[in-house]
Amino acid sequence: MARFGGGDNAGHTIRVGDRKLALRVVPSAVLQERCELFIGGGTVISRTGLLAEFEALAKIGVDLSRIKISDRAHVVFPHHADADREAEQARGAGALGTTGRGIGPAYVDKVARKGVTFGALLAANDLEESIARHVVDGVEYLHSALERGQRVLAEGAQGTLLDVGYGTYPYVTSSHTLAGGACIGLGVGPRAIDRVLGVVKAYATRVGGGPFPSELSGEDGERLRAAGAEFGTVTGRPRRCGWFDAVAARYASRLNGLTAAAITKLDVLSGLEKIGIVTGYSIAGKPAAFAAAADPHLHVEIEYVPGWSADITGVTRIADLPAEARAYVQRIEASLAVPVECVSVGPERSQLAV
Fold first, then answer.
1. Which of 76, 81, 93, 187 could form a disulfide with 106 if both were Cys (CB 3.0 to 4.6 A apart)?
2. pTM here?
3. Is the pLDDT assigned to residue 232 strictly greater than 80?
């Protein structure tokens, strides 16, 4: 598995049995013992954060030798984090909601050609041995694996709408989060990608500022947050919650060239009498595209569909979901215009309906 962008400002939470593991930089297949783990050149990494993650993984018996870091990955220094926090404070009410971990300033230095790569530190013998042993020629490493016929799963960090080029700018992250970003972040050509699986929640969430047309501010939003444990993996901040937005979903599907989708957290919706779906945007009575998401005059069109009360956490086949849940999955599938391959019905990684 290969992580292609971002830094330790976005996390992945994994549940295996009673074990709950929060990852920030290391790819999320860390508990698959036969899987190699690669942190690509499109990432920016804090050495202290990386060492802390290594230490936590070593304590639970993970073989750290499986983890490789591209020599092209850039270093996040303490002064980057300082600059990040100072910039957020200066923005006041217009704060973007960054994590303050220095990701943006590190990418600024990279683009300004002032950044420092892990390869440069390695060449200067200025890298801790506990990190240096993991640094490899990223291009050679990954292409050698591909040429041996190994399958590579490219893993992104934040979602589509946080992409620096096509997200809800300026309320975005500082890297390309789209599937196309995997090519640049890992150093492979477009022909190396044979399928793109989009991961979409059964409802919508957002951390930090920025437009969120489907946001719920009342009881329904609070219920989704509590039932879905919607708090940031890295920051612990409560996530903003809303109904599934078919307009945003279709936008994301197009940008990523999805071939299939996986729906997560369908179980969180169990018990709701009715579930909302944002089916369209309009301004002054005229249809609007996703680009209008931040327009103060935007009107969202919401359709409500029947919910279900049954416990679905033990369901293993989509066909065995309650009729209302199946219908809801089909609505999401139609909005993405690609088939839904699987649906998560609980937080444990085996709780998948296919």
1. 76
2. 0.91
3. no
